[in-house]
Amino acid sequence: MLTSRKFIISFSLLINIVLSGCASNGIFLMKGKSENSTVENSNRNNAGKKSGLDTITDSTNRPKVDQERKLGSIPRAENQNIFNEIANNFRLPNLPASRVNRQVKVFTRNPEYLIRMFARSTKYLHFVHKEVQSRNLPSEIALLPFVESAYNPHATSRAKAAGLWQFIPSTGRRYELKQTWWTDERRTVMDSTYAALDYLEYLYKLKNKDWFLALASYNWGERSVRKAIEKNKRARKKTNYSSLRMPRETRNYVPKLLAMREIIRNPTKYGLELPVIPNVPYFRSVAITDSLDVDLISELSEIDEGEFLALNANVLRPVVNKKHTRNILLPYGKYDIFKSNLRQFQKTQQSLVGWIPLKLKDSASVNDIAKKFGNDAHAVAKANGIRSLKTKLLKGSSIIVATNDKSLNTSAKIENFNKAKLKFLYPDHIFYKVRKGDTLSHIATRYRISVKSLKRLNNLRGNLIRVGQRLRVRGGDNLYNKNTHTVRKGESLYQIAKRYRTTVRELKRLNKLASDIIISGSNLIIRN
What we know:
Blueprint: H1 11-20, E1 29-30, H2 82-87, H3 97-108, H4 111-121, H5 125-134, H6 144-149, H7 169-174, H8 190-206, H9 211-220, H10 222-234, H11 248-265, E2 272-273, E3 283-287, E4 292-293, H12 294-301, H13 305-311, E5 319-320, E6 327-331, H14 335-346, E7 355-359, E8 364-365, H15 366-372, H16 377-384, E9 392-393, E10 398-402, H17 411-415, E11 424-425, E12 429-433, H18 440-446, H19 451-457, E13 470-475, E14 484-486, H20 493-499, H21 504-511, E15 523-525
Antiparallel strand pairs: 1-2, 3-6, 4-5, 7-10, 8-9, 9-11, 12-13, 14-15
């Protein structure tokens, strides 16, 4: 069992902990190192699903962040490490030790990874565990985000799964997690946890109260697990988790979760000491009645922007738009500070929003736009989801830019701005070199074209691409109407013929070439 550790906190020190809003670093120790580097005041981890703090009424029946929820009689043991309570409520069955130990070795051979993972969890673990506890679920479920996202709300997978619980877009919509240009509720701490636990409870009942099959379904999909079970039934084989044929990721999914359980249950066995995460709420929910700049919220609550975004990873733009975000989370001790400072700031009559929509009257690059409006080019690009500062936007594009006029009230305009409309001016052609892990879908998304167009531009019949392959990802509107082509360094007749959908033989005939040798800079006739 988990080694218990005693520490005494005086009442005054406890108050300081609750109000500090900050956590010290180095919360994970290798056995034998000084205890002084552990976190003793990473405090307060919950706005509780049933906390009733700064709530507003939601019209739907599904419990949302802003509905009143009460934790009831669940005790707050301020002087207790949350891991002690979690370890006392482990209830999942076991798998063969060899499968679990293999994953334990994977985790423990990289203690730096564990340090980062546990450090991130200090903000969220109390809330997640209390919600799991209030539903009477096995406490191992509170460890699932370690496996899913390494407890990182900003995590995004190749399948576009996002947040602590790694919801794919379709499942997120199924559980009413809104995904817009302004916000992605799959990355919220509270709403995504409610949705994930709702989904897991549904899967548990669907799979005849078999937690391992429920977890496999969460990872692989309900339909995939059902088909695997049906296949085993037809072959008269066992249909439990260990007997199903599954992808490697799903096969290792439950063993990874049980490996985290083993590490938390027996840390000293692996030469580790668990972090001290006080069993108190870390954050508190604040209802949003006005749109606010992210940097203004950080300033008024006296936290850095990184801390704010760690608790509000769903906020995708530099403004918290009240039409898309109804509440934010702040460190527990910063709630009153924010409220007080906000009241004082509103007395100055300064605008709460420093960004304004802009529709381009002429084509311009991001650098040019930023220079014209006195903005930071990187900030403009990030705010509008533009990857390159050199990208040229066409006339008619709509974006948001920062305004330096503090008296200008732009809230209404920002609230009615749904999303940036970006019309790009690309060069005549752009090539992309395929890297390990790339797919046509990822490349197409990156360059804002369809997979069908990407395949057409490169004469691809299937979806197979290889590392190092050069793909043309953009073509001019008049590409196939051009009569001449200027040879570029490294080009061959075959590449040029493929690009213009002609043949090497035809190019050689039109240009009276005796061989396949062409010179960089020369002009070739493509068609008569």
